[in-house]
Amino acid sequence: MNGLQKLQVYDTVGDRHPPASLLGLPLRMLFERKDRFDRYIKEGYTVADMGAGSGYYAIHIAKKMHGTGIVYAVDSGDALVRAMERKVRKLGLTNVRAIKASAAHVTAIPDDAVDFLISNLTICCMVDHVGAVKEMLRVMKPGSMAYVSSTAFRRNGDPRGVDKNEFEQLLYQFKIEKLKHGRLIREALVRKV
């Protein structure tokens, strides 16, 4: 399975897809350091970035693993996946698997395969929150960890929004290692039991 592979196509209705140009801004590095998950990643790991966008974390992690392991970079936005594919090709990375799919329907990732999972501001951009968490649980190895975050605000009537109670309810099947409700972001580090 060398090289970039588009493994799956699944269309979603109602999900939000930020522009690739916005997700790739250098300004982003001031707020989200690419290396923030490095302590959880080891060479040879299988990592899933659910809602990978244009590959901000996925590409960094693939480089960090020096061509070992696999990084499944999942996003349902066509433009975002294409932008990621261009970056991966340009860098010659062979351990990134681009998957065009909803985070709630990622059949291209095997059961119990993932050592570390990132779901950074993903569930608040999609309608099927429960489906996304079910997929996380399905693909993660027992004992593996995940970082999950959502925006802390919710517009009335927006089915993509996740309030404090729902965020905590979505995580009930995990062991919560760390939970923080900030003014802008809700975030948790969880472990599959």
3D structure, described in words:
With 193 residues, the chain is an alpha/beta fold. It is built from 6 helices and 7 strands. A 7-stranded mixed β-sheet has the order 3-2-1-4-5-7-6.
Detail the poorly predicted runs: 1-11
How much strand content do the residues show?
Answer: 25-35%
Number of helices: 6
User: How many strands?
Assistant: 7
What is the fold's blueprint, element by element?
Elements: H1 20-23, H2 28-31, E1 46-50, H3 56-64, E2 70-75, H4 78-91, E3 96-100, E4 114-119, H5 129-139, E5 140-151, H6 164-170, E6 174-181, E7 185-192
Parallel strand pairs: 1-2, 1-4, 2-3, 4-5
Antiparallel strand pairs: 5-7, 6-7
Structural descriptors:
alpha/beta; 193 residues; 7 strands; seven-stranded mixed β-sheet; disordered N terminus; 6 helices
Summarize the structure.
The protein has 193 residues and is of the alpha/beta class.
